[in-house]
Amino acid sequence: DVQLQASGGGLVQSGGSLRLSCAASGFAFNTMGMSWARQAPGKEIEYIAGIDEAGDRTNYVASVNGRVIISKDNTRNMVYLEMNSLKPEDTAVYYCQTGRWGGGVRGQGTQVTVSS
After folding, report:
1. What is the DSSP letter of 98?
2. What is the structure's pLDDT at 29?
3. Per-residue model confidence as pLDDT tens digits over 86-113
4. Which of 2, 57, 58, 113 is the 20 to 30 A CA-CA neighbour of 48?
C-alpha cells in the first residue's frame, strides 16, 4: 500500500522558516512525481508545489512562488518542502501526495501555524 507520512510542521513566527518532510513507501518512488498541498481552516485543499519523478523540474502556485522549494531524494524515498518568509496566511495542514500535479494518494498531514 502507498504510505505517505508528512512531518516537520509546527508553530513559527511570521517571517520564519520550516522544512517539511514526507517519507514515502509502498510504490516505485523514483518513477513518481510528487507534490504538496495544504488546507487552511474552513477552506478547500490547495495544491501548492510539484516536482517530477527525477527531481529535476518543479512548479509552484503564485501564492508560494519564491518562498518555498520542493525537492525529492530518490535514494531515501523522501520529498521535502522548504518554506521561507512564512506568513499567517500560510497556516494550514500540509500534505504530500503522489503525482507532480496532485490527484493521487494523499498522506497524513502536518500542521503549520504561523503567528503574526
Report:
1. E
2. 97
3. 999 999 999 999 999 998 999 999 999 9
4. 2
Cell of 20: 517539511
Tell me if 4 sits within 8 A of 12, measured CB to CB: no
10-13 and 110-115 beta bridge pairing: parallel
Residues 6+ apart with CB under 8 A from 12: 18, 86, 112, 113, 114, 115
15-33 residue pLDDT tens: 999 999 999 999 999 999 9
